[in-house]
Amino acid sequence: MPGIVIDGQALEAADGQTVMEAARAHGITIPALCWHPALSVDGSCRVCMVEVEGRGLAIACNLPVREGLAVLTDSEAVRAQRKLTLQFLTLNHPVDCGICDKAGECLLQDYHYAYNATPSVSNEPKLHATKHYSLGERIVLDNERCILCSRCVRFTREVSGSHVLGIEQRGDTSLIRPAAGRSLDEDPYSDNVIDLCPVGALLSRRFLHQSRVWYLTATPSICPGCARGCTVDVWHRRPDWQLQAVATHRNHAIARVTPRENPAVNGPWICNKGRDLADLLERLRALQPMVAGVPATLEEAMAAAREAIAAARHPLALVSTWGSNEELEAFKEHLGPLFTCRVKADHQRGPGEPGDDGLLIRADKNPNTSRARALFGEAPADTPGDTDLVLVWGEGFDGSTLPAGATTILLGSFEAPENVTAAVFIPLSILTERAGHYTNFEGVVSGFAPCFPAPATVTHAEELFPRLVPEGGRP
Amino acid sequence: MTPARVLMNFEVTATSHTLEAYRARGGYQALEKALRTLKPEDVTQMIMESGLQGRGGAAFPAGRKWQGIDPYDGQPHYLVANADEGEPGTFKDRWVLEYSPHTLLESMAIAAYSLGARHNFIYIRGEYDLPYRRLAAAVEEAYGAGLLGENILGSGFATDIFVFRGAGAYVCGEASSLLGSIEGSRAYPRNRPPRMTVSGLFGRPTVVNNVETLSTIAWIVDHGAAAFRAIGTPTSPGTRLLSVSGHVRRPGVYEVELGYAWGRFLHEDCGGIPGDRPLKAVIPGGISSQVLTGKDAKVLTADEMEGLTLDHDVLRKAGSSLGSGGMIVIAEGTCMVRLLQIMLRFYHHESCGQCTPCREGTGWMHRIIDRIVAGDGRPEDLERLYTIARANDGTTICGLGDAAGYATVAMLDNFGDEFAYFVEHKRSRHQGNIECPAS
Amino acid sequence: MKHLIPELEALKRRLPPHQDGVLVLPALRRIQEDRGFIADEDIDGLVEWLGIPRIQVEEVLSFYSMLRRAPVGAWHLQVCHNVSCSMHGAERLLAHLEERLGIACGETTADGRFTLSTVECLGACGGAPVVRVNEAYREALSVEAVDALLEELAGAAPPDTPGGWV
Ligand SMILES: Cc1cc2nc3c(=O)[nH]c(=O)nc-3n(C[C@H](O)[C@H](O)[C@H](O)COP(=O)(O)O)c2cc1C
Ligand code: SF4
Ligand code: SF4
Ligand code: FES
């Protein structure tokens, strides 16, 4: 445990740490562009320069701690060099923050204001490079904004292993490029480079020019895309910045999804499916309660359901693996005694979707199989021949397995043909409209919070379940 | 010319580079001596005692570098001869490769024995053609004669040498960049720590030495450390190969004993300046001479050169260095603005692009000086050049950024008035002339 | 490049085992010698043979000034214009060559015989000014000597691969 001194403050560092790591562990911020805690040390941006007392400047990110080491992070020499480094970084940078999605969360912008804050001293015309260079269906690259920190390159080598990106040419004509014939679409983790990029050089097509980030707020959530249950931030329009006249649907739409760092589950990353949460959650919603395909009030639908449950002799419940811990427990408590309960996979692995890949992605495409199985057992979700009522909670029910004469009660969130043919259909809220917890495949419990109010006609499963119990229970 | 010769100690003929000729002049006796009578650590000790300093630019003591490697630590070690010779003005290693390649091979075999290196590389710059062919032929001769490969000279010692050709990148002369080039990755110089003797080629302890440094080993083992120390000066033992070019009557490669008088060397050995023009300046050791050793100006003016001896210490004190031994002589009447323009174009062209100050700074300085030469200079340009140059001082991964800065600072410090004249009058004080007025 | 593999495999005998990346640059050089430039299919072949990511080959390829992705003329005249050569008239030589060949630096003559370019220091400053003609150095060239050189090359049989060994 070497003792070091940073800006006169004595602190204990851990063996093998760099000054950068030791400083951050003690809440001291040394600016860094190329350095990232989850990637190897590159040491090229030279922004993290500190003064080693008696020895001159050195980069903190590659400076090992040793007993008695004393560094200054804000000396005259450090300030002067940082200022110049920022002049260099913006020398050929377009400084087009006004139209850049990264503005507001750009490290270059922050550092410029913090450490330089003077106009360019250059009289030379700027060098130009490719703009809007396609890296596939998901990401575009602006080489003029790129500061060549190589974070994105290191990510594809050290984390995702796709080896798609590299730096071609040399000197000030160096360019981030994909290997010929390859695209970032092949990398199921590619969108992490958008967050990693300290500037606005790697941009999400999905989010391109959709919103200034300061109009957005992040709500902690969980990606339901697989059994990993990565913790995420769901970004959406801030309540105090709601759109009034145009595109008001955006007030209740997911603007983007980013990882919420969590060492116990997903580290700093998520896969692209998590980025595309809107594809899962913003499908056409089922908002109308129905009895035998005829629109009904929620009360009427619940009454019909209670009646069917009371009448059934061999009722089967197919429990959702997308239900939260709270909902599953509520189901168990209230409806469990009335049904033979089976756990159903709401979602199956789609064609071309990765299975267990050793990084994050799991073959089980449901977030709460773990808790559901713990409560309802491992038995397969098939339908015995004498079943006369099936209560289906969530998606993934194959109607063709329904025995002749049996009826169904469907509790779901999305538009589906079965909704109309069911005896009863009751619409439920979705992940972004309620709070709850999921238990991932390793038993780690994480929580999610509501982003938007639920539509008036849908109900929360947790509240619904007790109200489905027939008066006096089932005979 | 001093009679003390370590490398140029034979008459060059059409066949003097062959194994037969080399053996006839006592070649490979040192290897035999080392393998039969010395332990690996004895050889390192001998190099340590000889005081041999690196000839690639930094004049780092070779023995100290070697001591960073424990030949018995049970892991692979590598030895790499740096024959990239990219420093403008430098062409002295080429002399060894062309005329005495076996000196290098024998010395490398001894060094490999001392360092416990089973595999060795010679990294030769990609453009070299004849030097490569001579070297490659010598390697085959040595293998054929059992001087490389398995069981060398019946000693049981085995080592291989692979001649690796570069492909046109000055930065690959920087030792860690060179290793990346060999590994087949982007040849970016690497941050220290770790030192290369801790983690070098393929992550293993590695020694990189210049061709001339290594080629001296056979002589030292042959004659002993004391004999080597007897040559040169106490702080700069031995001789150096100097490659001389520019405005000089007899350009070429010379071996001089360290401590040799500069004036005598220029006027007698090199024949002075054509047309007996007065001397304006000297770049003593490659246009980056300064980068590898110190921090001050590196172009020496005629007055500063007067009375100097060619010696690491003396030149360091004079604010420059013997660097890579690539000496460029500049006659009075030469436009220094144009010369700096060429240098800055070079650094801009060769920056690997990794470090922010070098990637952006070399191009920026190049564009400024191009503008000055085009007659579009602004009063603030010179101050700007200073600022950019200084921002590269000790702030980059390798010495290229520093070198570009030093070249600029030295020129501006010594010839500032000439630059100011160009900016003010929008033309060169010397009509943009860079050729020797008399040639 | 497939036909070069046996020859490249043979290089492994003096190399440390299991370090196949070492062969990237030697292979690229050899391919260029063979074809005159490096084609897409060569990169494919190399990637397949060495089992390395394609981006690695592309990064290496684009880093070095000697490696090229397109053919040059039969004779590639590379004029050194670094300090020592410029101090001996390299700039005049270049201008003269441009005029004689009727092309600008970086271009190839319409008949495909000559490509003209500049290079940085070739490590032959003692023989300044130097022009590298394909693989070989021609040193201490005057304008007259360059004329003689063009004459000589005009009469010579072109090399098997453009810009390659004679
Ligand atoms: C940009 C740059 C280029 C260099 N080029 C060469 C070179 O061409 N040849 C060389 O021997 N050393 C060169 N060096 C120095 C090497 O990094 C290294 O110090 C040297 O090869 C060590 O050998 P020595 O100790 O025997 O001198 C260069 C250094 C830098 C920073
Ligand atoms: S694109 Fe972004 S992450 Fe990649 S090197 Fe450029 S600045 Fe860094
Ligand atoms: S100083 Fe320049 S050449 Fe050296 S590593 Fe940095 S960018 Fe590359
Ligand atoms: S963060 Fe240390 S050099 Fe970039």
Briefly characterize the structure:
Chain B is built from 17 helices and eleven strands. Chain B is α/β, with parallel strands linked by helices and 439 residues long.
Describe the protein.
The complex is a heterotrimer of chains A (475), B (439) and C (166). Helix content of chain A is 21%, strand content 19%. With 475 residues, chain A is of the alpha+beta class. Among the domains of chain A are: 3-89, Ubiquitin-like (UB roll), CATH 3.10.20.740; 290-468, Rossmann fold, CATH 3.40.50.740. Chain A has a 7-stranded mixed beta sheet with strand order 15-14-20-19-18-16-17. Chain A has a 5-stranded mixed beta sheet with strand order 2-1-5-3-4, sandwiched between helices. Chain A has a 3-stranded antiparallel beta sheet with strand order 6-7-10. In chain A, helix 2 packs across helix 3 (107-116) and helix 9 packs parallel to helix 10 (369-376). Chain A starts with a strand and ends in an 8-residue tail after the last helix. Chain B is of the alpha/beta class and 439 residues long. A 5-stranded mixed beta sheet of chain B has the order 6-5-11-8-9. In chain B, strands 3-2-1-4 form a 4-stranded parallel beta sheet, sandwiched between helices. Chain B folds into 3 domains: 19-229, Rossmann fold (3-Layer(aba) Sandwich); 239-280 and 294-322, no CATH class; 336-425, de novo design (two linked rop proteins), CATH 1.20.1440. In chain B, helix 2 (29-37) runs parallel beside helix 6, helix 3 crosses helix 6 (101-115) and helix 16 (381-391) packs antiparallel against helix 17 (399-425). Residues 290-297 of chain B have low confidence and may be disordered. Chain C is α+β, with helices and mostly antiparallel strands and 166 residues long. Chain C folds into 2 domains: 2-63, Arc Repressor Mutant, subunit A; 75-155, 3-Layer(aba) Sandwich (Glutaredoxin). Chain C starts with a helix and ends in an 11-residue tail after the last helix. The structure holds flavin mononucleotide, iron/sulfur cluster (2 copies) and FE2/S2 (inorganic) cluster.
